[in-house]
Design a protein that fits this description.
This protein has 107 residues and is of the alpha+beta class. The protein has a domain of 66 residues: YefM-like fold (3-Layer(aba) Sandwich), CATH 3.40.1620. Helices cover 61% and strands 14% of the residues. It contains six helices and three strands. A hairpin with a 7-residue loop joins strand 2 and strand 3. The longest helix has 22 residues. The radius of gyration is 23 Å and the shape is elongated. 1% of the residues are buried.
Length: 107
């Protein structure tokens, strides 16, 4: 899920002087999953430039992973979810569950 978002990133390396000289051209390349890595002699000074939509996609996936991790780390809640999963499968097989459309349909 989230790993695939990051695995598909295509890093394009550019040094600072080339970026300054051809800023428009390089920034146009930072679209979708194409990410600019602005190189520097000092690794701590390197910067990343990425598309806003791609950034938002990464942020949403990260938030989702954090929420999932919080649920899994709450042992009591996670045990309740696992117990409910067993009964949900049984209820689904027996036809006891209703779709959201059925539950919230207007008569």
């Amino acid at each position: 899920m989230a790993a695939s978002v990051l695995e598909n990133a295509k890093m394009l390396e550019v040094n600072r002087s080339d970026l300054r000289q051809h800023q428009s051209r390089w920034l146009k390349k930072a679209r979708g999953q194409h990410v600019l890595l602005v190189k520097s002699n000092d690794a701590e000074e390197e910067k990343i430039v990425l598309d806003r939509q791609y950034f938002d996609e990464i942020r949403k996936k990260l938030e989702s992973l954090v929420e999932t991790l919080e649920i899994v780390m709450d042992r009591k809640l996670f045990k309740q979810i696992l117990a409910a999963a067993d009964t949900l499968e049984e209820d689904l097989r027996l036809g006891k569950l209703h779709s959201l459309e059925d539950a919230f349909a207007e008569d």
